[in-house]
Write a structure and sequence with these properties.
D-Maltodextrin-Binding Protein, domain 2; six-stranded mixed sheet; 14 helices
Length: 503
């Protein structure tokens, strides 16, 4: 019955088709695998890879997020403006519900900033938001973010979930965030058994229309690589991130396909420019010329990697493409540079590495290849704790390192190569280089930032404070029954929300 004056609403054909498709995909359950368990589920105090795999994008979200093309798009904020270089106004999406059914409001965003910057939280990513001077509510659904200085990476950092997850401020008194969750994501944690599994259920009040499709997802911990392959082959586990050896073993699996995409993890060695002879750029360039990087990653990663410069190629147009990197293998030119530096007979050095297969493998190859120019390198392997101590003291000649995901190019350069960078393991620095980074951080226009980062990368490649070997490809095993899933450069299972089960 239609009341007088009312209009009977009939959905347009496209909307009806969308709803019909959603109805056929909705429901069902699946089991995915993980190789490591998080110590804590607190999205601000614990941002390890294991923790992010559990809650990143699935349980918690930020004001912005990344789409399938790694473009920043609206999430909990439906829009934003930048009225002046140090002011951002975010308009929140109305009707967004946390898992406890509380509505998202401006106070929750204010609480996020208070918690991420509080000393008691001990947030490992607190420094990434140092440019934020204040976060203030402007009514119930708008927030003003005031910066100390213009800061171009802001939107990508908010999407990166390295400390940017929005938590229900009103649920804090009732939740233990180390074991429970209070987010807005497509799934909520129904059960968390440390060292065993996490069970998710569909968030029925999720804001993205018709998503997620799955009703229940179990994330099962399978720490042994051989066991994980068996679980995937048998179908007991329907998805997992895997390594090159596992990908090779699954190549003939009937119901499993291996997905491969550019990854964020870089494998690097830093040379200590504070120690002779690496204080001489000719020596560093000679080392670079002695290396056959492709042969190295073929051996260590089975070819499942790409050449990388200071920014990994997977970070779209910000990086120097692999084919444009100025690497060449020229032992003759390397020996000439060493002779010019007064080292015609080479020299002795030590390479420090974690006792981990990939770092150790690349360190061993580095020592082998340096012998071609008379450099006698001894490989010294230590446990992870000892390596961190040596890194903090900068007590090494050459040290093996790896870089994980950063949502913005600044994350690959400033911490590692700025003179005051927290992870400047090479001890290299340049006033001009720092000026480039500062200009890129404070310039909003992408073309201008692009030019600045291109010059910064050229500078590093010329100065050679590090040996950039490769960026490891992101490998995932997916059962044929899992449809609609897409890989994400973040390394997280972001698009589990668009996945459905086809029997």
């Amino acid at each position: 019955m239609v009341e007088m004056g009312a209009v009977e609403s009939t959905p347009p054909p496209a909307a009806r088709r969308t709803s019909q498709v959603a109805a056929t995909r909705s429901g069902g359950s699946t089991v995915w695998g993980a190789s490591a368990a998080p110590i804590s589920l607190d999205p601000h105090a614990s941002t390890s890879e294991a923790a992010l795999l559990v809650w990143g994008d699935l349980v918690y979200q930020g004001l912005t997020m990344f789409d399938q093309n790694f473009k920043v798009v609206p999430a909990l904020a439906e829009s934003w403006t930048n009225p002046d270089p140090t002011t951002w106004l975010f308009t929140l999406r109305r009707g967004v519900r946390f898992h406890d059914s509380q509505e998202l409001r401006a106070d929750d965003v204010v609480f996020w900033h208070q918690r991420i910057t509080a000393a008691a939280t001990a947030a490992p990513d607190r420094a990434g938001f140092a440019a934020i001077a204040a976060v203030e509510p402007v009514g119930m659904y708008r927030v003003r973010v005031t910066l100390n200085t213009p800061y171009a990476p802001l939107l990508t950092l908010l999407a990166g979930l390295r400390g940017s997850a929005i938590v229900s401020s009103r649920a804090m008194h009732n939740f233990d965030l180390e074991r429970e969750t209070a987010g807005t994501g497509p799934f909520r944690v129904a059960e968390y058994v440390a060292g065993s599994h996490v069970t998710y259920t569909r968030h029925g009040e999720y804001w993205e229309r018709d998503l997620p499709y799955l009703q229940t997802v179990t994330l099962k911990l399978v720490s042994d690589a051989v066991d994980l392959v068996d679980e995937l082959r048998s179908g007991r586990v329907r998805h997992a991130s895997i390594g090159p050896d596992q990908a090779r073993e699954l190549a003939d699996a009937r119901d499993v396909r291996v997905l491969e995409a550019p990854g964020a993890r870089q494998w690097v060695h830093h040379v200590n420019v504070g120690r002779p002879p690496f204080d001489d750029v000719r020596v560093r360039r000679a080392v670079a010329l002695a290396l056959d990087r492709r042969a190295a990653y073929e051996r260590v990663f089975g070819g499942r990697a790409v050449l990388t410069g200071p920014i990994p190629p997977g970070l779209t147009s910000w990086a120097t493409p692999s084919e444009r990197l100025p690497y060449r293998h020229d032992l003759g030119a390397a020996r000439l540079l060493l002779a010019e530096a007064g080292l015609p007979e080479g020299f002795d050095t030590v390479v420090v590495t974690a006792d981990e297969p990939r770092s150790l493998g690349l360190s061993t190859i580095l020592a082998e290849q340096l012998r071609g120019i008379g450099v006698r390198a001894q490989v010294h392997r230590v446990n992870r704790g000892s390596l961190l101590q040596l890194m903090q003291a900068r007590d090494y000649d050459i040290v093996a390192d790896e870089n994980g995901f950063s949502p913005d190019p600044d994350g690959y350069l400033t911490p590692t190569y700025a003179r005051d960078g927290a992870r400047n393991l090479s001890r290299w620095g340049s006033e001009r280089f720092d000026q480039l980074l500062q200009a890129a951080r404070t310039t909003i226009e992408p073309p201008t930032r692009q030019r600045l980062y291109e010059e910064a990368q050229r500078t590093l490649l010329d100065e050679a404070p590090s040996i950039w070997w490769c960026a490891e490809n992101q490998l995932e095993a997916l059962h044929h029954s899992q449809k609609g899933y897409h890989q994400s450069y973040t390394g997280r299972s972001t698009f589990l929300k668009t996945t459905w089960v086809e029997n």
